[in-house]
Amino acid sequence: MGYVIRLEKLSKTYGSRRGLVDLDLTVGEGEVFGYLGPNGAGKSTTIRLLLDLIRPTGGKAWLFDRNPSEHAVDLHRRIGYLAGDFVVNPRQRVSECLTFLAALRGGVPRQRIEDLAGRLDLDLSARIKTLSKGNRQKVGLVQAFMHRPDLLILDEPTSGLDPLVQQTFLDLVREARAAGQTVFMSSHIMTEVEAVADRVGIIREGRLVALEAVARLRDHAIHRFDITFAGPIDQSAFAALPGISDLTIDGPTAQFALAASPNDLIRVLARHEVASIRATEPDLEELFLAHYQPADGVQENSNA
């Protein structure tokens, strides 16, 4: 598998403000990569550097093994991009806007545009200035997906969308991956990334703090347990477990979080009579919060 995106020590500063610091990252062909972080963490800065909308302070970036600053026009032909602040001519009708953007791409079958609009419940006859934020976002999604690009770069793609349309968007991402397309998707919404991403990168204050497959991230995360016993509970045995926290024992029920292998827990449970046990797998929200603890004294940058 070749690399569609390759970054080495990529950095960007805005005067005295930090934007991105020594970012090393690769994204493979046909991969869906989730890029997580709150507003101001550096997600949009990374994307703008990839697209040569801004230039790096240091380091290098390659798309399809080519330098974006030297081959921007050719590379952009292979990319579908949805900006976090998607803006188009408000006086146009949706169909006019998409037809114009399709022509810039060398032409897109009308049926393809209509199919995407239908799936997203987008009125092609409406004027853009009359659309809600969510419906304007649908226009952005159609223009990003319609020419079936080799690489989709999506910055906060579900902003303003209702839950049903969010599910349709996730279906489009799955279909893109099945067709061999690569998707680089920035977000601060954990559930949507968890649903489709092969790997996840978490960015904190301009630095990449985690980079793993979703399953491996969960392996290192805190699991929560709710156990009901049929007999007495040895509270001291549970309190002594490595990695245990938030231990609460109320009558026959024990609740706690465990950030360690369950081996020791199983040994303790074997000495008790257990009536029921429920373990909750962590979601990406918890994983994200575990990795994103802003450093003391660091001022967040308003540039996402």
Automatic annotation (TrEMBL):
Alphabetical list of Gene3D superfamilies matching this protein: P-loop containing nucleotide triphosphate hydrolases
The ABC transporter domain sits at: 5-230
User: Which GO terms fall under molecular function for this chain's record?
Assistant: ATP binding; ATP hydrolysis activity
Q: What is the lineage of its organism?
A: Bacteria, Bacillati, Actinomycetota, Actinomycetes, Micromonosporales
Domain of life, per UniProt, equals Bacteria
Q: What are the protein's UniProt keywords?
A: ATP-binding, Nucleotide-binding, Transport
The name this protein goes by in its record: ABC transporter ATP-binding protein
Q: Which species expresses this protein natively?
A: Micromonospora costi
* SMART domains, A to Z: AAA
